[in-house]
Amino acid sequence: NLSEELLHEAHNDKELVQRFESAVIHWTRQIKEAVNEKDVESASESEGPLAEIEYWRARTRDLNNIRKQFIREDVLQIVEVLQRAKSFYYLEPFLALRTDIETQTKEAIDNLKYLNTLKEPCTRLEQADPKDIPGMVKEILQTVQMIYIHSEYYNKERFYRLLRMISNEIVLRCRKKINLQAIFDGDVERSMVALQESVEAGEAWMAACRKMLNTTAKNFRGNEKADQLEV
């Protein structure tokens, strides 16, 4: 940290200003790499909805940590020196990034707040048998609907990705229940029961999704986000 006297004169030290410019360039590059948003296409074929919750939990934590760095005394002093030295070419992208981090942090906190309402039902889904799934989809989809309609930042692409991740989990539950080896060993009857339960789980999910989309379009007509959904 610089004393008040040194801080007042530091902008006249060209070598010091250049060092501070290099630091700001380095920080800007590092922060951009750290916060580069990768959520839109991040869901793999095996990821379930709990992975979406964990993504936003981690993102909230990371962004909050970065925000704390911006308000460190030494960082604020470097910004002040560069402002006095009129080194705006390097400083302006850094300050713009600081503003962007504030916006992204607010977004992450808001998304996590709403997504946390899915944690309990989706934890139960992760442990469910196919026969239990038809009785669970209504609650899950009502929660997803409320997240999309009432959250400030959860957009259409994220909404559809979340539905896909829930579908992933349902498919995984069904795959775990169907024992191919048992079929090969001749235990066809029990395997057919598991297969039928899986088909019913999938059909219940698809039917509930269609109903939810129709309900959203009907009950929230005039809501900009609801109007964007494809029914």
Structural account:
The protein is mainly alpha-helical. About 75% of the residues lie in helices and about 0% in strands. The chain is built from eleven helices and no strands. Helix 2 crosses helix 4, helix 3 packs antiparallel against helix 5 and helix 7 packs parallel to helix 10. The longest helix is centred in the C-terminal third of the chain and has 32 residues. The chain is elongated, with a radius of gyration of 25 Å. The relative contact order is 0.10.
For the termini, the CA-CA separation is 59 Å
**What is the alpha-carbon Rg in Å?**
25 Å
Overall mean pLDDT: 87
Q: What class would the helix/strand composition place it in?
A: mainly alpha
Overall 3D form: elongated
Q: Could you give the order of the helices and strands?
A: HHHHHHHHHHH
Helix content: over 70%
Give a count of the beta strands, DSSP E runs of length 2 or more.
0
Largest sheet: none
Strand content: under 5%
- Helix count equals 11
Low-confidence stretches: none
Task: Provide a brief overview of the structure.
By secondary structure, the protein is mostly helical.
Q: What tags apply to this protein structure?
A:
11 helices; 76% helix; mainly alpha; 231 residues
Topology:
Layout (H helix, E strand, L loop, with lengths): L3 H6 L4 H22 L13 H22 L2 H12 L3 H28 L3 H8 L10 H14 L5 H22 L2 H5 L3 H32 L4 H4 L4
Helix pairs in contact: 2-4, 2-5, 3-5, 7-10, 8-10
